[in-house]
Design a protein that fits this description.
- This protein has 376 residues and is of the alpha/beta class.
- It folds into 2 domains: 149 residues, 3-Layer(aba) Sandwich (Rossmann fold), CATH 3.40.50.2300; 185 residues, 3-Layer(aba) Sandwich (Rossmann fold).
- It is built from 12 helices and 12 strands.
- The longest helix is centred in the middle third of the chain and has 19 residues.
- The radius of gyration is 21 Å and the shape is elongated.
- It is found in: Cell envelope.
């Protein structure tokens, strides 16, 4: 039950000084109806990635392309085999949302040798010169928004980010969770959030009671809800007396992690709602299950990253490459994959609170009011 998460220049894959033809099957300029685009998504266990895959496929097909869409069930060997097969089948372009941003070097080498452009989708692929473009959200700012929403929930800031003149003094006890260490975006989220929280931590307004604040300690492999629940349960036992000590807020980078945290908190006697003692818990991806919890006053916030817009930018980039052009980038400095700075297109995200669910998610057609009410 999970929606939306991800993290940039040079010429096309495998390009050299002598390359003068458009990339993709030796520079073939056939009409879109004769071209196939391989789309590799990480998993179908997350609501968000199912929506991404469907949005990319539908928009590409509307543009006249044939689409080979594959989901890898969060298994790295499966994803590498799927991409290998796409290359063997001579797709004209690849759109890849990687499971592990460091595990696809040989596949990208093969794509580069075949003249197949590669667009990294939402997650940067590291360690390869054959990443031609990156489409994502402003991931550092997503972390800023997550931390901002935590501060809003604690009463320290207003929703517009301004200081609340009537803010309580604190101190507030919080805990911090981060995303998967093999996902390049997780570091951007974490850094944006921690930079935003730092002044409040430095002056003692916020206290991470467990002392666990470094990324490696608080990271959650594969963004696992179950792993997050176990860690939260351990923290409650070791640091909060099994729920007898007060915990005011939890920085969570993803809605699945948030739901694991909330399950642990409810099991320790917190809540069931924020008004009844549930700590402020943040999130990301506006998954419908978490949006319903926000509507019910259980989870405080999430970050909405409209996957329809991300799909649109992916299609625009794909069309540009296949027409022999360079896609428009709005960031050519930030996303260094260890070999090159990958030209990128960054989209903006929004903070979802209970009072703007209708405006952001229902009025935009992303969900229906019935889905929000039912949580599915």
């Amino acid at each position: 039950m999970t929606f939306a998460l991800a993290a940039c220049g040079g010429g096309g894959a495998g390009s050299g000084d002598e390359a003068t033809e458009p990339a993709g099957n030796g520079g073939d300029t056939a009409a879109s109806g004769d071209q196939t685009i391989g789309v590799a998504m990480p998993t179908q266990t997350s609501e968000r990635w199912i929506a991404d895959g469907e949005a990319v496929q539908s928009q590409l097909e509307e543009a006249g392309y044939t689409v080979d869409l594959q989901f890898a069930n969060d298994d790295i060997p499966t994803q590498t085999q799927q991409i290998d097969q796409m290359i063997l089948q001579e797709v004209d372009l690849l759109i890849i949302a990687s499971i592990d941003g460091t595990a696809l070097t040989s596949q990208l080498d093969a794509a580069g040798a075949a003249g197949i452009p590669v667009i990294a989708y939402d997650r940067l692929i590291n360690g390869s010169e054959n990443v031609d473009f990156y489409v994502t959200f402003d991931n550092y700012n997503v972390g800023v928004q997550q931390a901002t929403s935590l501060l809003v929930g604690l009463g320290l800031l207003n929703q517009d980010g301004s200081e609340n003149p009537d803010a309580p003094e604190g101190p507030f006890n919080i805990e911090v969770f981060a995303g998967s260490p093999d996902d390049n975006n997780a570091g951007f989220f974490f850094n944006g959030a921690m930079d935003t929280l730092k002044p409040f931590l430095d002056d003692g307004t916020l206290v991470v009671t467990s002392g666990q604040t470094d990324f490696d300690t608080v990271a959650t492999l594969r963004w696992s809800q179950e792993a997050a629940q176990r860690r939260m349960e351990d923290l409650l036992t070791s640091t909060y007396g099994g729920g007898r000590e007060e915990l005011h807020g939890v920085l969570s980078p993803f809605d699945g992690i948030s739901r694991g945290i909330i399950t642990a908190l409810q099991g320790a006697g917190y809540g069931p709602t924020i008004e009844e003692g549930m700590p402020v818990v943040t999130g990301q991806d506006a998954e419908i299950a978490s949006v319903a919890l926000i509507d019910q006053g259980v989870q405080f916030s999430t970050i909405f990253k409209d996957t329809r817009k991300l799909a649109t930018e992916s299609v625009r980039a794909a069309e540009a490459f296949l027409e022999g052009n360079e896609p428009e980038a709005n960031d050519t400095d930030t996303y260094d994959n260890g070999v090159k700075v990958v030209p990128s297109y960054l989209l903006e995200s929004d903070i979802v609170y209970a009072d703007n669910i209708t405006e952001l998610l229902v009025d935009s057609g992303y969900y229906t009011a019935e889905q929000v009410e039912q949580g599915s």
